[in-house]
């Protein structure tokens, strides 16, 4: 167990290192000059451009820039901003080229938005996905099964910007049941928080629920065919108990591991949903900063995304070992 | 209600005589691709309270389908069940789902062949037993748990209170089957249905489980329906047998009579095909009527000489600790004489398969030597080994998985020839010849393995092994996946081929009776070591090592009298052992 954790931590560090190198490399291979963008394309003189470049540290060799980034991450660093010197404590992800704000602050500002969106949607997609999957496994080949399969295929194939727009039209324009979404922090008004997030939750959950319903159905059918289910029936357990206690337990175990990884991934990649519903989340920030060649923000977000997925994987493994005692972590 | 008083006694007596299971004209059919497949056809039998009936037959005889029908377990499946099945006075065909549910586990309980898959891996053993108690008796959690511990203790699980918290995978095979039996006992049912309860177990563990079932039956008076393919298992454990073949009852009667003087031709064949451990080797003849020759020269240099052979498998350790290696083969020395058949017996995990694979260098030894024809197979690099490979061939246990399902059997047989560079017309001729020789129609060379029966597939496996005319043929459990009548035909084929091809045979098997019939000499393995090696008849009649004696005492006998005597002997040993130490069950099983 201990050795497992040690290996996973070492693995995570390696993954994040490779990721940051890759992002730096790709960034410098791409056409475009961030200093030019910051300075303004038309109004920028050559002197000013050189100044901006120096200020952003872009005049240094790439390796040096990377080295400074890593030192900042581990021990913090000082950055000169005009006459004053700013200290950026570890873990320092640098400052945005565009806004001069610390990247860490940019991310922590938006994290609650993304967490609210992802976790809420997760509850929904699990409920819909697992419920639909179980129902269709139990009614295999009958109407309910076919209807669920059709819905699932629909959910999978309709992109979020179509289903999201439809939701907005129906609930905000025609029925006027819900406000046009804007983010209200959970702490300030829980009811408004939920009311504003209901539509984004559904839009995001529909896509994911489809996958989960398929998986639950397959996994459930597999488990129902196992010998120990026959035993449970042979010993007179009620069908509800056979399904609820014995079949579901086995069927959901593989799902739990998938869930942990998915949550980590969705956290930073729900840009479409965020943009559509005007939520200032991490996905949106990522798209913006890529468009403006805002390297420090991109690197910071990529590291966060990598970190979330690595953590998701570890949680998945741990969950598996807890849920299925036959699995031992070595 | 005083008027009914005198009536009570006769009613009770009537109740006691009334069969607890009554099956009348049972028919079970499954929808197949080409019309329906009838698994059971017109079967009738009754089981009185406390009686024991054996349902015996080969695979596909319909015995398991019958067992499932007794608990109404075909409900909700595609099977069509007709006829009348009555259990504890309830007509299963007419009863509601709820009535059937109440019957299951409470009046009639079932134990299954593979207790690992039959128990839920996600819950502790005690939890699963307690659940059954609560469902049927309305006990509270605490009482149900206490009951679970009691029955686990009753079936001989040591420190039951603690072990009840273990999950099925933490038990050995025998312990798991005990736990399954404990679950069956939980509600003290009137009938126990045991579907091949010991088929997945080693012979000594099998004897323990069967003895336990016997004891429990004596104690509780529950009736037993024992479903088995093994006539020996039936002999010692039931009063009556019903022999089934292709879904039909062929013969029935007291077990002693049916097994000693069967009247139906099918039963006679079946009984004759069972290898008997008490029969000396020389009385077995091959198909040409030739008894095994005694031409083996014991003083000549053996064809294979193995010295201090070891094979350790590294277990996955952690970062900071290295796992103890599993010593699968741990210092074996023996010789295989030219022209003999050497039998290797042992229980699961004893290392017999590992040894067999090293003999043909399918596995590299950790240390030791294997001298074959002047070469040390253990240390020869693969390149120099290749020319020798044609002399070393192997027949595997499961013919279904050891043949490539996507290649025709003709191609599979031809493969060794192709590897050794024969030309195509030659290959066609040899393959046809070999197929004919092992009793397959050469016209079927372009068919795929799934179109053949189990016995035929094993014939393909044998043909493939012999096509290069090897000198040493190692057979690893070559017939244990086959029905007993098919088994005896394949064994006879091997005897024929051995003489014809001048083979030296190594025959690895767990079935002690079978090994006696085919081997000149027998080696007994335990925990990676050979504990005893001797001439076959000597070993079986005067075993020297206590482990060999224990193994032989556990083999089921076909004669019920002998079976009873053996059970008594085992019980005496067990009582004596109880003073010394715990059970030896599961020893050496890497779980």
From TrEMBL, chain A:
<keyword id="KW-0812">Transmembrane</keyword>
<feature type="domain" description="ABC transmembrane type-1">
    <location>
        <begin position="111"/>
        <end position="320"/>
    </location>
</feature>
<keyword id="KW-0472">Membrane</keyword>
<dbReference type="InterPro" id="IPR035906">
    <property type="entry name" value="MetI-like_sf"/>
</dbReference>
<dbReference type="InterPro" id="IPR000515">
    <property type="entry name" value="MetI-like"/>
</dbReference>
<dbReference type="Pfam" id="PF00528">
    <property type="entry name" value="BPD_transp_1"/>
</dbReference>
<keyword id="KW-1133">Transmembrane helix</keyword>
<feature type="transmembrane region" description="Helical">
    <location>
        <begin position="113"/>
        <end position="138"/>
    </location>
</feature>
<comment type="similarity">
    <text>Belongs to the binding-protein-dependent transport system permease family.</text>
</comment>
<keyword id="KW-0813">Transport</keyword>
<feature type="transmembrane region" description="Helical">
    <location>
        <begin position="150"/>
        <end position="177"/>
    </location>
</feature>
<dbReference type="InterPro" id="IPR045621">
    <property type="entry name" value="BPD_transp_1_N"/>
</dbReference>
<dbReference type="Pfam" id="PF19300">
    <property type="entry name" value="BPD_transp_1_N"/>
</dbReference>
<keyword id="KW-1003">Cell membrane</keyword>
<protein>
    <submittedName>
        <fullName>Peptide/nickel transport system permease protein</fullName>
    </submittedName>
</protein>
<feature type="transmembrane region" description="Helical">
    <location>
        <begin position="297"/>
        <end position="323"/>
    </location>
</feature>
<feature type="transmembrane region" description="Helical">
    <location>
        <begin position="255"/>
        <end position="277"/>
    </location>
</feature>
<feature type="transmembrane region" description="Helical">
    <location>
        <begin position="9"/>
        <end position="30"/>
    </location>
</feature>
<feature type="transmembrane region" description="Helical">
    <location>
        <begin position="197"/>
        <end position="215"/>
    </location>
</feature>
TrEMBL record, chain B:
<dbReference type="InterPro" id="IPR003593">
    <property type="entry name" value="AAA+_ATPase"/>
</dbReference>
<dbReference type="InterPro" id="IPR027417">
    <property type="entry name" value="P-loop_NTPase"/>
</dbReference>
<dbReference type="Pfam" id="PF08352">
    <property type="entry name" value="oligo_HPY"/>
</dbReference>
<comment type="similarity">
    <text>Belongs to the ABC transporter superfamily.</text>
</comment>
<keyword id="KW-0067">ATP-binding</keyword>
<feature type="domain" description="ABC transporter">
    <location>
        <begin position="304"/>
        <end position="552"/>
    </location>
</feature>
<dbReference type="InterPro" id="IPR013563">
    <property type="entry name" value="Oligopep_ABC_C"/>
</dbReference>
<dbReference type="InterPro" id="IPR003439">
    <property type="entry name" value="ABC_transporter-like_ATP-bd"/>
</dbReference>
<dbReference type="InterPro" id="IPR050319">
    <property type="entry name" value="ABC_transp_ATP-bind"/>
</dbReference>
<protein>
    <submittedName>
        <fullName>Peptide/nickel transport system ATP-binding protein</fullName>
    </submittedName>
</protein>
<feature type="domain" description="ABC transporter">
    <location>
        <begin position="21"/>
        <end position="271"/>
    </location>
</feature>
<keyword id="KW-0547">Nucleotide-binding</keyword>
<dbReference type="InterPro" id="IPR017871">
    <property type="entry name" value="ABC_transporter-like_CS"/>
</dbReference>
<keyword id="KW-0813">Transport</keyword>
<dbReference type="Pfam" id="PF00005">
    <property type="entry name" value="ABC_tran"/>
</dbReference>
<dbReference type="GO" id="GO:0005524">
    <property type="term" value="F:ATP binding"/>
</dbReference>
């Amino acid at each position: 167990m201990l050795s497992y954790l040690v290996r996973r931590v070492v693995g995570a560090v390696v993954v994040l290192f490779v990721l940051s190198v890759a992002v730096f490399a790709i960034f410098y291979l791409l056409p475009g000059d961030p200093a030019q963008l910051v300075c303004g394309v038309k109004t920028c003189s050559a002197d000013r451009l050189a100044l901006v470049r120096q200020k952003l540290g872009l005049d240094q060799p790439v390796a040096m820039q990377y080295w400074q980034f890593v030192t900042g991450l581990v021990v913090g660093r000082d950055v000169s901003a005009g006459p004053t010197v700013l200290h950026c404590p570890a873990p320092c992800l640098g400052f945005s080229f565009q806004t001069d704000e610390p990247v860490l602050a940019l991310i922590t500002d938006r994290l609650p938005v993304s967490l609210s969106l992802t976790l809420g949607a997760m509850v929904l997609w699990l409920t819909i996905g697992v419920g639909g999957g179980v129902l269709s496994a139990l009614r295999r080949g009958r109407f309910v099964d076919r209807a669920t399969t059709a819905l699932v295929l629909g959910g999978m194939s309709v992109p979020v910007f179509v289903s999201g727009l439809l939701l907005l039209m129906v609930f905000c324009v025609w029925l006027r049941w819900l406000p046009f979404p804007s983010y209200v922090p959970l702490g300030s008004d829980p009811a408004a928080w939920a009311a504003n997030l209901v539509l984004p939750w559904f839009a995001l959950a529909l896509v994911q629920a489809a996958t989960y319903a398929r998986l639950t159905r397959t996994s459930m059918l597999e488990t129902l065919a196992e010998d120990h289910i026959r035993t449970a029936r042979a010993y007179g357990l009620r069908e509800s108990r056979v399904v609820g206690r014995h079949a579901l337990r086995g069927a959901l175990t593989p799902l739990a591991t998938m869930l942990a990884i998915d949550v980590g991934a969705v956290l930073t990649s729900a840009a479409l949903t965020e943009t559509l519903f005007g939520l200032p989340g991490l996905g949106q920030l990522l798209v913006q900063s890529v468009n403006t060649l805002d390297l420090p923000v991109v690197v910071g977000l990529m590291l966060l995304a990598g970190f979330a997925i690595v953590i998701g994987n570890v949680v998945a493994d741990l969950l598996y070992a807890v849920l299925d005692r036959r699995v031992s972590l070595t | 209600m005083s008027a009914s008083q005198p009536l009570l006694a006769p009613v009770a007596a009537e109740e006691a005589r009334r069969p607890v299971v009554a099956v009348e004209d049972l028919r079970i059919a499954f929808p197949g691709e080409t019309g329906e497949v009838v698994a059971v056809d017109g079967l009738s039998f009754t089981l009185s309270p406390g009686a024991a009936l054996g349902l015996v037959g080969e695979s596909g005889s319909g015995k398991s389908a019958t067992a499932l029908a007794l608990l109404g377990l075909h409900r909700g499946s595609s099977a069509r069940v007709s006829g009348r099945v009555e259990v504890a006075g309830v007509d299963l065909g007419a009863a509601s789902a709820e009535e059937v549910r109440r019957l299951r586990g409470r009046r009639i309980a079932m134990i299954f062949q593979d207790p690992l898959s039959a128990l839920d891996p996600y819950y502790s053993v005690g939890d699963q037993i307690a659940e059954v108690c609560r469902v049927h008796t309305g006990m509270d959690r605490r009482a149900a748990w206490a009951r679970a511990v009691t029955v686990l203790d009753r079936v001989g699980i040591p420190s039951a209170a603690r072990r009840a918290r273990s999950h099925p995978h933490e038990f050995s095979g025998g312990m798991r089957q005990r736990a399954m039996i404990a679950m069956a006992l939980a509600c003290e049912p009137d009938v126990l249905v045991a579907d091949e309860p010991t088929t997945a177990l080693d012979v000594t563990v099998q004897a323990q489980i069967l003895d336990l079932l016997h004891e429990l039956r004596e104690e509780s008076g529950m009736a037993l329906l024992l479903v088995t393919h093994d006539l020996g298992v039936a002999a010692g454990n039931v009063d009556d047998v019903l022999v089934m073949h292709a879904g039909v009852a062929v013969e029935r009667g007291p077990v002693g009579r049916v097994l000693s003087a069967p009247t139906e031709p099918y039963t006679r064949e079946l009984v004759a095909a069972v290898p008997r451990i008490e029969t000396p080797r020389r009385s077995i003849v091959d198909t040409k009527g030739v008894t095994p020759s005694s031409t083996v020269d014991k003083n000549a240099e053996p064809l294979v000489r193995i010295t201090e052979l070891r094979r350790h498998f590294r277990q996955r350790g952690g970062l900071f600790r290295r796992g103890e290696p599993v010593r699968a083969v741990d210092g074996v020395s023996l010789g295989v004489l030219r022209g003999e058949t050497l039998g290797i017996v042992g229980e699961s995990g004893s290392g017999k398969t590992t040894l067999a694979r090293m003999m043909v260098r399918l596995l590299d030894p950790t240390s030791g030597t294997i001298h074959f024809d002047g070469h040390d197979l253990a240390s020869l690099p693969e390149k120099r080994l290749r020319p020798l490979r044609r002399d070393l061939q192997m027949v595997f246990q499961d013919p279904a998985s050891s043949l490539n399902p996507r290649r025709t059997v003709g191609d599979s047989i031809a493969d060794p020839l192709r590897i050794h560079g024969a030309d195509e017309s030659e290959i066609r001729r040899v393959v046809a010849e070999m197929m004919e020789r092992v009793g397959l129609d050469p016209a079927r060379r372009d068919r795929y393995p799934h179109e053949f029966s189990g016995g035929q597939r094993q014939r393909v496996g044998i043909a493939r092994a012999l096509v290069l005319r090897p000198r040493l043929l190692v057979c690893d459990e070559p017939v244990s996946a086959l029905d007993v009548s098919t088994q005896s035909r394949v064994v006879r084929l091997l005897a024929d081929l051995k003489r014809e091809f001048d083979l030296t045979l190594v025959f690895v098997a767990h079935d002690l009776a079978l090994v006696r019939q085919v081997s000149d000499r027998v080696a007994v393995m335990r925990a990676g070591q050979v504990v005893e090696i001797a001439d076959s008849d000597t070993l079986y009649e005067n075993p020297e090592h206590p482990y060999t004696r224990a193994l032989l005492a556990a083999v089921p006998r076909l004669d019920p009298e002998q079976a009873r005597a053996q059970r008594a002997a085992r019980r005496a040993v067990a009582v004596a052992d109880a003073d010394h130490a715990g059970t030896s069950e599961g020893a050496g099983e890497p779980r």
